Amino acid sequence: MTTILFVEDEANLLNSVAFILEREGFHVTGVGTGEDALKIALADPPDLVLLDINLPGIDGFEVAQRLRRHPVTAQVLIMLLSARNTVEDVVDGLERYADDYVTKPFHPRLLLARIHALLRRQAPSEALPSERLCFNELEIDVAARETRVGQERLALTKTEFDILYLLATRPNHVLSRDQILDAVRGDGAVITDRAVDFQVSGLRRKLGSAARLIETVRGVGYKLAV
Q: How many alpha carbons lie under 13 Å from residue 211 in its C-beta half-sphere?
């Protein structure tokens, strides 16, 4: 059964959405603070964290950042929920923290569709071959879904890892933004060609010295140049 950690300080919304998710067949744990969310997630990582941004104490951005940095929860799916609906807020959330971003207020059917789409994107990863891809200091452990630059293990989001893996399986081959979109998004997942650029930008920052391997081919897309 898919497990969801729902972090929301508004009790009525927490209870109503949790009820809908459980009726859909998910196992839901609901908490009202970021501190409680971190304790539960680190002790027993869920499949998905449904995370409100405006929380008392530690806010949702800080929670997401800590989850991404911890090796136990680095690959957990994170969906941010927020009334902040500007392009800048959504892009910032997707680029730095989350696998998806849903603005409030939302219709329950839309939320369910986005959750199912996000989980479908995760499913193919279970069938990834057991192999390691190495390019100078960059090492990708496909089976473990881990990435290292030298001795440093990177905390990549699922989308960042999928993009890097896609480029690494076809080194020196230019992939268009549309090809990247088709490979990493599930049906109904909201990722645009512009968001691909932001995901790659975030990926490069995390790669550090290995960022030079990802080259932009102007007007086309990206390639892993080795």
A: 12
Where are the CATH 1.10.10.10 domain residues in the chain? 128-224
In a structure prediction context, what are the per-residue pLDDT tens digits for the chain, which is 226 residues long?
789 999 999 999 999 999 999 999 999 999 999 999 999 999 989 999 999 988 988 998 899 989 988 878 888 899 988 887 666 666 666 766 788 888 888 888 889 998 988 887 765 444 445 578 999 899 999 888 899 999 999 999 888 998 999 899 888 888 888 888 777 765 444 455 677 888 899 999 999 999 999 999 888 899 999 8
* Architecture in CATH of 3-124: 3-Layer(aba) Sandwich (3.40)
Fill in the DSSP letter of residue 186: P
DSSP state, 79?
A: E
Strand order in the sheet with 100-103: 27-31, 3-7, 48-52, 77-82, 100-103
Instruction: Give residue for tokens 């329950």.
Output: 108
Q: Is residue 213 within 8 Å of 173, Cβ to Cβ?
A: no
Residue type, 109: R
CATH of domain 128-224: 1.10.10.10
Residue type, 5: L
Burial class (CB in 10 A: 0-12, 13-18, 19+), 99: buried
d(CA 49, CA 39): 13
Q: Which helix (H) or strand (E) holds 66?
A: helix 60-69
